[in-house]
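Hello support,

Our group uses your service weekly, and this is the first time we've seen a run hang past the timeout. The protein is TetR/AcrR family transcriptional regulator. I'm not sure whether the cause is the sequence or the server load. Input pasted verbatim:
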Amino acid sequence: MARTKDQNKAIRAATREKIHDSGTMLFAKKGFTATSVKDIAEEAGISTGLMYRHYSKKEELFSELVEYAASGLKQVNERFEGRGESLELIKGFTEEIAEDLKRDDRYSYFSMLMNQAVMENSTAVEKSGLKNESARMVENISRLIQEGQEREQMKEGDPKKLTYMYLSVIQGLSMLRVMNSEDFAAPEASMIMDCLIRK
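Update from on-call engineer: The timeout came from a worker crash unrelated to the input. Re-ran successfully.
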């Protein structure tokens, strides 16, 4: 019995998700240059021919993943620029990151992929607006920290320096999660927030 259009669509979507997960992981761990189409296909458990039916070259997949990462940052920025008390906005974001780090490697791989994209200085970064969204995120968090300082909720100090310290903790945890996935112990959100909260 032939498959329906909906069944074919579901199979295609499931295959693309496998390709995305495999590509994200390999680009994050090995870098763009060292990752081949064959590597991605093998990791996804599909043939190289099927991989080429979805993406004609690895640059296409990489660009799509970078755009997806930039889109995620854009959503975070929109939330930071929306309504809400500054401490609660940062706390909510930190709790999500902490949960992602506990659950699986997915966030960590995307975080590392963004770094790889910037380090490769790829055209995908320029097209996606990833650098702009990253800079916007730094500005948003700095502003929220400054507002928290005015309410005597956040530690004193240069808001931008505190922002970079906070983001470096998250980035460092992501890197350690990728490097030590079996032995990794994700800290609680409150432990991450300790670098910002006034006692």
